[in-house]
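Example 513.
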Amino acid sequence: MSKVKNAYKEIEDIIGTDFITDKDFMKAAYSRNVDPAFPDRWADMIVRPESTEEVSEIVKIANKYKITIVPRGGGADLVGGSVSEGGILMDLTRMNNIIEINETDFYCVVECGITWGALVSELHQRGLTTGVLGPGSGYSATIGGGLSNSTAGAGSTKYGLVPDICLGVEVVLCNPEGTILQTGAAANKYAKPFCRYGVAPDFTGLFMGDVGTMGIKTKAYLKLFPLQPYRKSINFMLNKNDWNKVTELTHKLQTEVKDGLNSLAILPHTVFKMLSQMAKERPKQRLRIRGSAFGISLEASDERILEIYEEKVKEIMLKDDVCRIFKYQEIDASIEERQENEIILKNIFHYFNKYIGIMPGMISLTTCHKVPISFIPEGAEAAAQFDAKYRLEFPEKAISLWATVIYVLPNGHCVFVGGLTAFNRDDQRKIAMDMWHKKLRAQVRYGGAHYWLGESISQSIVEAGAYTPEFAQFFKDMKKAVDPNFLLSPKKFHMYTYEDDISKHLVEDEPYR
Ligand SMILES: Cc1cc2nc3c(=O)[nH]c(=O)nc-3n(C[C@H](O)[C@H](O)[C@H](O)COP(=O)(O)OP(=O)(O)OC[C@H]3O[C@@H](n4cnc5c(N)ncnc54)[C@H](O)[C@@H]3O)c2cc1C
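Predicted structure in complex with flavin-adenine dinucleotide:
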């Protein structure tokens, strides 16, 4: 029997016939994420463990037969992260229990395969929240995926990225022993998982944003916050297309309204115009779109505090006639008005369709990355220069948007949520993939920091030469300590073996302006 067949049999004995498969139709169903620029990739088997102990046993078998493993949550990755060419694809969504919600000490313990939908719905009923509510891909993405992709989402302006609410994890290391360990306060076997720092170095960080390369996260300990009952959203339109003004106003809002700001999103002028052209129901009097739009969501524990926040926001935004308040109905009468204190899960789910999936029917090669807010004007310029320089190499009729939306994060930085589109056709796929990597390398070289790294982005970071030799060696040494046989998520970061020198993937001489 081949090693794959042997491993299959042994895993089947552990998790049962119903939770392992090598049937073609299942392998096909798991062969993609939301990233059609990649070819389909078929794993040798798909396994669906139910407990940490089962994960550990599977890891031991994988080590025995030297078979690779890729962990998978909701499979909503955009960059080749949770598919596997051969080997074991480990679907963690059966591990979906809420183990503890501690309302007094504001933390919860969940299994990593639970979806944001299940967790947030339960918490909101109890007047609690995780603050950041998961990614724009929707509520079927998992907590494990969010931690592994350093996800930003609704609420991130105030509460930060998903790793920022993480107090520790239970993780299975991909070593022959299938070691199970806890990080954060939970590393103290006498302690509850109520805080992240203080027991040992911050080993939680090793597993955050690792795109499943450092371990398989099975449980997460997450911060909770009281759900703020008073909310209000206000939209402003700039009277001029001026990026310096965008930076200035963003900084002011962060300085003066800080805790009241749940979300701050800026819709660039071009995207705003595109949205208005795509309106389902055009109002009779068409709005003249002069500048970018600010979407501001405020939250507070008390109505009076909310009023103060609102007043402050208006004072900042309306000073010197820089902006005016507007409603989206002014560009599309079919857009529903949101009630003031409502969180509409459906809207959070669909925000991508509205602001990001701006070209339906195409594949999007996402290039979302973080920059300091002071870089916004220069970033817009650098992106335009890149597009002008390489326009002829773009896939057919591609549309490149450096930012379909700029989403503000805490402490003076923001995300450029953008990308490139291409036709979902075989003859366009390689051209699209090459241009995608080139664009990502340019962003790395102007100092951007991406977050969901998967395969295409993690490889582009290496190709751009971001890592010093010392850092690359440290990274490999750390990985070797937790995955000695190099079985977990191969290919990411252009790592294929520990002997390889990743600097050979460097792409030089590539000016982006
Ligand atoms: C329309 C759309 C909108 C999106 N919007 C956002 C957004 O606003 N913000 C954002 O950050 N992302 C966004 N994404 C990307 C992605 O959906 C998110 O990053 C999401 O958090 C991934 O979660 P998932 O459970 O689907 O993970 P998966 O796709 O299953 O996995 C993601 C990565 O994490 C690893 N992984 C998953 N679970 C584990 C685990 N338990 N242990 C170890 N490794 C694991 C996988 O190997 C993979 O590398 C979007 C995607 C789409 C399609």
